[in-house]
Amino acid sequence: MFKHKSPLHIRFSDVDAFGHVNNACYLTYIEEARVSYFEEVVDWSYDWSTKGIILAKAEIDFILPIHFKEEIVVYTRCSRIGTKSFDLEYQLTRFHEGKEIIMADAVTVMVAFDYTTKKSIEVPHAWREALKAFEGVDVLVQ
């Protein structure tokens, strides 16, 4: 179950010559949702120049094309927490005739990172606890 959602605004510049959102834009959309998720769930009020996360892997399943002016929502959840990394899942949806339609699914692997040493680190305890508290039993801890 997804508990976090971010409204998405489709820009005219996101649309390609075929009349739908260019595939590359989806990475920006899930990035915006990820930032919103962490601002709300983990309360990232710390110095980004010391510790943060880096994107290690991204997979996107394009189900239906998104068009200009469609109202899209990105749902985000943490589905796995490992020692140094965690997975985030996303669903991009739109409403049509009172029904929610999935436009794309995505998964990213995020790695906790120390920017001063330029090395991966263990997911900080505070982040781990905040993610687990928000997601409840739905998150897989490894």
Description:
The protein is built from 2 helices and 7 strands. The chain is an alpha+beta fold and 142 residues long. Strands 1, 2, 3, 4, 5, 6 and 7 form a 7-stranded mixed sheet that branches. Helices cover 20% and strands 42% of the residues. The chain has a single domain (4-141), classed as Thiol Ester Dehydrase, Chain A (Roll). It is globular. The two termini are 19 Å apart. A hairpin with a 3-residue loop joins strand 3 (72-81) and strand 4. The mean pLDDT is 92.
Write the layout of secondary structure elements.
Blueprint lengths: L3 E5 L16 H17 L9 E12 L9 E10 L3 E12 L2 E16 L4 E2 L4 H11 L4 E2 L1
Parallel strand pairs: 3-7
Antiparallel strand pairs: 1-3, 2-5, 3-4, 4-5, 5-6
Keywords:
142 residues, alpha+beta, Thiol Ester Dehydrase, Chain A, seven-stranded mixed β-sheet, 7 strands, 42% strand, globular
**Average pLDDT for all residues:** 92
Overall tally of domains: 1
Low-confidence stretches: none
**Global morphology:** globular
* Rg: 16 Å
What percent of residues adopt helix (DSSP H or I)? 10-25%
Q: First CA to last CA: what distance?
A: 19 Å
Task: Give the CATH class.
Answer: Alpha Beta
Kindly state the number of beta strands.
7
What are the secondary-structure elements, in order, as H or E?
A: EHEEEEEHE
Q: Specify the CATH architecture.
A: Roll
Oligomer: single chain
- Classify the secondary structure makeup into a structural class: alpha+beta
CATH topology: Thiol Ester Dehydrase, Chain A
CATH homology group: Hotdog Thioesterase
